[in-house]
Inverse folding.
């Protein structure tokens, strides 16, 4: 299948073919070969461990250490990492070939609907700067200045391949799922001012503009390259959004400023120290009666068996997402309640998909009373 490119980055025939190859390789590795890992677990790893210790695995950490020695896992993991590198190489080929034109296309001139405010003095937090999340070259925080959009271009170019390569159902947009959840839970909410945190390249921002057309929309990210790309997209689409380079742990917004604060798949790319600060700041800048709704991947480890915990914990150890496993071990309501939200107003729930056959994401947050 052909890979659809975003509105700025163009791909020629060979680049489309390479993208399609990488996508199908990821499908094969994850959906074709991935299930074989369970057979290795059930038929080899689990019996061998029980014979050696007289008991089953206590947790996914014991299982991970044992599976590292299994030939099948080593082969699968090597292929997975190779496919991930190929994805980024494919993105880099397109970006390098047309970088100057890409900068020109994303430089917004003339009358603007929204605004863009970068902050060269902002210190990108260590949980973003210390690792190249998802192995993205240079990481999210890379910024060469002078309108550089490298970080945004990489994220945009590889995003579609990455998601579909994980076998995710692409019929359900994360933003749409969260919007439906918020509207169903809070039918009386008529937000005048909305903040999206961790907006990256604006993939979900447009959905919030469309869902609440009368609201003033703000979006923040620690990455200058991301919000430059996002701003250019929204201007091209004719959508008014105010972008600023900020850290969600301590934003520059005044107290009691927003009616609705949201994030889409941001929390697992923060840290255990940052998360309470984010919730505290959300509570500070949220108006009384306002709602906070953070959405992320639906992996609450308390709901999963040890094998599934181990299998889904891959990103923690091999995909540069160190907070992935810790977030899904966490009782997310604790930092929410500690920030000031009342127990009866807080939630931690799966979000049903549009097909009605189960949850595809989860949302956590609450209403400020």
């Amino acid at each position: 299948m052909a890979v659809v490119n975003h509105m700025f980055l163009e791909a020629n025939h060979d680049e489309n073919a390479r993208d399609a190859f990488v996508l199908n390789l990821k499908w094969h590795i994850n959906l074709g070969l991935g299930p074989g890992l369970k057979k290795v677990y059930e038929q080899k790893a689990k019996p061998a461990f029980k014979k050696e210790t007289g008991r089953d695995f206590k947790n996914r950490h014991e299982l991970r250490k044992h599976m590292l020695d299994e030939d099948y896992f080593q082969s699968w993991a090597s292929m997975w990492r190779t496919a991930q590198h190929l994805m980024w190489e494919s993105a880099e080929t397109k970006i390098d070939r047309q970088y100057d034109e890409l900068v020109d296309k994303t430089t917004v001139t003339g009358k603007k609907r929204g605004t863009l405010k970068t902050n060269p003095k902002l210190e990108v937090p260590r949980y973003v700067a210390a690792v190249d999340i998802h192995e993205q070259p240079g990481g999210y925080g890379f910024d060469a200045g002078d309108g550089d959009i490298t970080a945004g271009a990489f994220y945009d170019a590889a995003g579609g391949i990455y998601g579909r390569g994980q076998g995710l159902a692409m019929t359900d947009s994360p933003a749409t799922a969260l919007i439906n959840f918020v509207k169903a839970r809070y039918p009386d909410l008529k937000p005048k001012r909305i903040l999206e945190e961790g907006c990256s390249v604006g993939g979900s921002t447009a959905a919030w503009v469309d869902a609440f057309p009368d609201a003033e929309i703000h979006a923040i990210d620690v990455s200058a390259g991301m919000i430059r790309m996002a701003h250019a997209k929204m201007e091209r689409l004719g959508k008014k959004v105010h972008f600023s380079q900020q850290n969600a742990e301590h934003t520059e917004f005044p107290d009691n400023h927003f009616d609705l604060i949201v994030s889409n798949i941001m929390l697992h790319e923060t840290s255990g120290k940052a998360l309470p600060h984010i919730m505290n700041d959300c509570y500070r800048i949220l108006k009384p009666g306002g709602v906070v709704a953070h959405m992320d991947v639906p992996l609450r480890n308390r709901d999963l068996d040890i094998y599934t915990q181990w299998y889904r914990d891959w990103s923690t150890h091999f995909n540069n997402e160190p907070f992935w496993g810790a977030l899904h071990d966490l009782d997310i309501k604790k930092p929410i309640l500690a920030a000031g939200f009342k127990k009866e107003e807080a939630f931690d729930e799966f979000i049903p998909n549009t097909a009605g056959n189960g949850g595809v994401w989860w949302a956590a947050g609450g209403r400020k009373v």
Notes: The CA atoms of residues 313 and 325 lie 6 Å apart.
